[in-house]
């Protein structure tokens, strides 16, 4: 590599590092690092942000060693289906190994973002103690810690800017954790405690946010009563993003007007969320800021359609809307008429288990949105019925989808008019939306839809499949197509051994594959593991009856399978229900 | 029977005096079905709305049962694990809405029943029968506290945010391994610790057993409140825990309030 070596020596290292600083994307940096040894060396010393999509893909110490100057790290743990209780609770994803390695090798770490990991209070205390310049802690869908751990963060992270707790399971054992923020803490920009279940000392909170002039995001939990919201807003009129606490109280004209004026006083408000227990009474208090809103999350508010329409019609600049299906088709038609800048829509089910009266949210609402909102590119939609015709229309209206997740709540539901599978509809989506990165399928689907996806979904990175397909061909289409597929998660589909073994090499190009309640046998997994040393083939068997897995025959069915590429070899923290095949 | 929606005037109340249940009209509405904005709780206003007329309620026959509203609720149809794909966090918030308050005229406290826990009307009726049969059958199996002086039985109740007195235990407590409920009972000079409902009752019964109270005696306990965390969400504020005498209409005023200042900080 003589030519390369000379070339790199043309400039001093500092110049190259400066050049590399213009490469923020990891993919570009990874490519640069492969050019020559000199560039590898230079790039690794100048990378200060790492993203680890699978905490078991690499040894923590190795990652820390390779990039010694890291200031910001993001790490993900459990597979996505853990959100829906499909992954055993003791599966893994513990953060200790990473936090210990980082404490050792990245003492200057400023930002840590963890998703779907098990984070203990010990971890939080280690973070609080070891990183002197720590500024940002973001925990999303994590568990294993308590408010005592948060107290340690509050007490010791002197420059804390962001404490962002999103949908974590937090044990509440330290009532006064927020009192541990010292008087000298004035640097908070983001405080999101919406997922905490316990009481919050609102007076302490008031004093805290009163001394943090840069606070932009404040998301309260539902223990904060509406009356106290007024005081909090008075102390933080500069807020850009507000998550209310409990949004209900005894009707009181004085409270209403105080609330209304407090909210109106927040001239920079762009995002609203929370609205626990919200009813129609106090909703009009936010009317004054509706025009400026770009993000509105009403998905925890069981407000009815008419009230929702009154509210959302005022939000002419809305870009993101999360709402319950109580909005119904009529409400979505109103949204389509009013919110022309809408980019992301999520409609959640108010009654996932179907016990209540049916709600009039159908394919018509989705079609209306697709027709009325030209900038729409991300959809999550829970409904009970769908037609191919509707999906074809949506595909034609919205060729710019990057994320399309449709959940028809009853498995195997066909087109309710033609009784046909929904292959044609979803095929239209993938054929029309050339930039589709994420897709979730539902309804009655045959192998045909997978043929379309394999052939057309060239930018697809994540695919979720449930209760679909006829046989092996379906999986084969996906694995042999979808050039950019990173994550594939499948449940309750009749996919078996052959497509896995035929496409073993594909699995090394992906981050992970999850298959549960499919038709995979232990023998195929053993073969795969032997053939592909850079994959961890994890077989999860929760039933624990009969022979241990090593003694089971090849034709033993595998209930849950999680395969991921790794350079770290088999992990050492597997629980008794997980076997890593070699 | 009547619903317990305060201010809900659309339910008819049977002319029940004392413990006469010959003719009862059962109307249930989900917690969120209140018409009045004031009573808006975490619930769905289009939740299950059942209307059932039955004679001889306690004997279990419910042949004449005109069902209006939602029709046969399929509250417990076989649920596939993890489907539909709604995050546990979100599901916990929604789940709270399937608890319904049930009151029987003339009884000293109300009960809560989880509609999702019963597969259909028949099962729900049976469960309700059992819940309220203690008032006639006098065979309540979980006798815990008996006043040695006058033989009155006590059960622990709490006052919820509507001002209704509810029997403790219908909404399951989240029993966490390191959680304690501690409080001081003033007047008794005793400190109580309990990790779950059984222990709480046992502890209180021990204390209570040392003192006898007669009807109309007011025994003050300390101030404060304790939040009950049920199934991952704060369901009711336990503002005061009162021991109600069963089988009478008058409530004995032994109030047990929990002082949050005395709640211990847990060591991890």
Write a brief caption for the model.
The complex is a heterodimer of chains A (582) and B (268). Chain A is an alpha/beta fold and 582 residues long. Helix content of chain A is 32%, strand content 18%.
Q: Care to describe what's here?
A:
The complex is a heterodimer of chains A (582) and B (268). The mean pLDDT of chain A is 94. Chain A has a 21-stranded mixed beta sheet. Chain A has 582 residues and is an alpha/beta fold. The radius of gyration of chain A is 26 Å and the shape is globular. With 268 residues, chain B is α+β, with helices and mostly antiparallel strands. Chain B is 14% helix and 24% strand. Chain B has 4 helices and 14 strands. In chain B, strands 6, 7, 8, 13 and 14 form a 5-stranded antiparallel beta sheet that branches. Chain B is globular. The N terminus and C terminus of chain B are likely disordered. At the A-B interface, loops of A face helix 1 of B. Chain B: Keywords: Auxin signaling pathway, Nucleus, Repressor, Transcription, Transcription regulation. Chain B: Homodimers and heterodimers. Chain B: Belongs to the Aux/IAA family. Chain B: This is Auxin-responsive protein.
């Amino acid at each position: 590599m003589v030519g390369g070596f000379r070339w790199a020596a043309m400039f001093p290292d500092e110049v190259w590092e400066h050049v590399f600083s213009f490469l923020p994307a990891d993919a570009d940096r990874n490519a640069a690092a492969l050019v020559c040894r000199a560039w590898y060396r230079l790039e690794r010393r100048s990378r200060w942000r790492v993203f680890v999509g699978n905490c078991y893909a690499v040894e923590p110490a190795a990652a820390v060693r390779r990039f010694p100057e890291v200031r910001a790290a993001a790490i993900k743990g459990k597979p996505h289906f853990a959100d829906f209780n499909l992954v055993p609770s003791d599966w893994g994803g513990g953060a200790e190994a990473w936090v210990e390695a980082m404490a050792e090798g990245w003492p200057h770490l400023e930002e840590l973002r963890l998703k779907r990991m098990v984070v203990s209070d010990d971890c939080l205390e280690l973070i609080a103690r070891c990183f002197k310049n720590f500024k940002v802690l973001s925990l999303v869908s994590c568990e294993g810690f308590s408010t005592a751990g948060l107290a340690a963060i509050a007490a010791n992270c002197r420059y804390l800017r962001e404490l962002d707790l999103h949908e974590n399971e937090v044990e509440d054992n330290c009532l006064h954790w927020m009192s541990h923020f010292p008087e000298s803490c004035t640097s908070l920009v983001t405080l999101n405690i919406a997922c905490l279940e316990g009481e919050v000392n609102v007076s302490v909170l008031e004093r805290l946010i009163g001394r943090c002039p840069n606070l932009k995001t404040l998301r309260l939990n539902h223990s904060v009563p509406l009356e106290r919201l007024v005081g909090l807003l008075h102390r933080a009129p500069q807020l850009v993003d507000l998550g209310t606490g409990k949004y209900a109280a005894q009707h009181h004209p004085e409270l209403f007007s105080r609330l209304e004026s407090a909210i109106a006083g927040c001239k920079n408000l762009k995002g609203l969320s929370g609205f626990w227990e919200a009813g129609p009474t106090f909703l009009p208090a936010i009317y004054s800021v509706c025009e400026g809103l770009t993000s509105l999350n009403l998905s925890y508010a069981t407000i009815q359609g008419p009230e929702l329409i009154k509210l959302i019609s005022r939000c002419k600049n809305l870009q993101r809307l999360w709402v319950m299906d109580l909005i119904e088709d009529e409400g979505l038609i109103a949204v389509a008429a009013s919110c022309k800048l809408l980019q992301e829509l999520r409609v959640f089910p108010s009654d996932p288990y179907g016990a209540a009266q049916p709600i009039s949210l159908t394919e018509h609402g989705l079609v209306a949105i697709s027709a009325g909102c030209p900038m729409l590119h991300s959809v999550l939609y829970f409904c009970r019925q769908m037609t191919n015709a509707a999906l074809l229309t949506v595909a034609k209206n919205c060729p710019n989808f990057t994320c399309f997740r449709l959940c028809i709540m009853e498995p195997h539901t066909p087109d309710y008019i033609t009784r046909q599978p929904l292959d044609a509809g979803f095929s239209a989506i993938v054929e029309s939306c050339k930039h589709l990165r994420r897709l979730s399928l539902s309804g009655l689907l045959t192998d045909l839809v997978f043929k379309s996806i394999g052939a057309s979904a060239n930018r697809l990175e994540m695919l979720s499949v449930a209760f679909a397909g006829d046989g092996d061909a379906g999986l084969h289409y996906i694995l042999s197509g979808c050039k950019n597929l990173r994550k594939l998660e499948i449940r309750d589909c009749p996919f078996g051994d052959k497509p896995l073994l035929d496409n073993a090499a594909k699995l090394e190009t992906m981050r992970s594959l999850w298959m549960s309640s499919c038709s995979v046998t232990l023998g195929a997994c053993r073969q795969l593991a032997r053939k592909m040393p850079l994959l961890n083939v994890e077989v999860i068997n929760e039933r624990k009856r009969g022979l241990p897995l090593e003694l089971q025959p090849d034709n033993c069915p595998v209930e849950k399978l999680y395969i991921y590429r790794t350079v770290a070899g088999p992990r050492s923290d597997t629980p008794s229900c997980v076997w890593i095949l070699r | 029977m009547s619903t317990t929606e305060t201010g809900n005037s659309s339910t008819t109340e049977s002319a029940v005096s004392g413990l006469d249940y010959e003719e009862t009209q059962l109307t249930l509405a989900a917690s969120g079905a209140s018409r009045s904005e004031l009573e808006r709780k975490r619930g769905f206003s289009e939740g299950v709305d059942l209307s059932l007329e039955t004679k001889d309620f306690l004997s279990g026959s419910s042949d004449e049962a005109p069902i209006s509203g939602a029709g046969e609720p399929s509250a417990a149809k076989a649920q596939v694990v993890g489907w539909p794909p709604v995050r546990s966090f979100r599901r916990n918030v929604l789940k709270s809405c399937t608890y319904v308050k049930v009151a029987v005229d003339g009884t000293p406290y109300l009960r809560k029943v989880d509609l999702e826990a019963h597969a259909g009307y028949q099962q729900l009726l049976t469960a309700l029968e059992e819940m309220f049969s203690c008032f006639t059958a006098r065979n309540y199996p979980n006798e815990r506290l008996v006043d040695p002086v006058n033989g009155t039985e006590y059960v622990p109740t709490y006052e919820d945010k509507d001002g209704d007195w509810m029997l403790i235990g219908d909404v399951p407590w989240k029993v966490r391994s390191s959680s304690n409920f501690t409080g001081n009972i003033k007047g008794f000079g005793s400190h109580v610790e309990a990790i779950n409902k059984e222990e709480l009752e046992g502890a209180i019964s021990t204390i209570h057993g040392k003192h006898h109270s007669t009807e109309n005696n007011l025994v003050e306990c300390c101030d404060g409140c304790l939040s009950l965390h049920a199934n991952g969400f704060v369901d009711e504020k336990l503002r005061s825990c009162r021991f109600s005498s069963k089988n009478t209409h008058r409530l004995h005023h032994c109030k047990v309030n929990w002082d949050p200042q005395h709640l211990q900080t847990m060591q991890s």
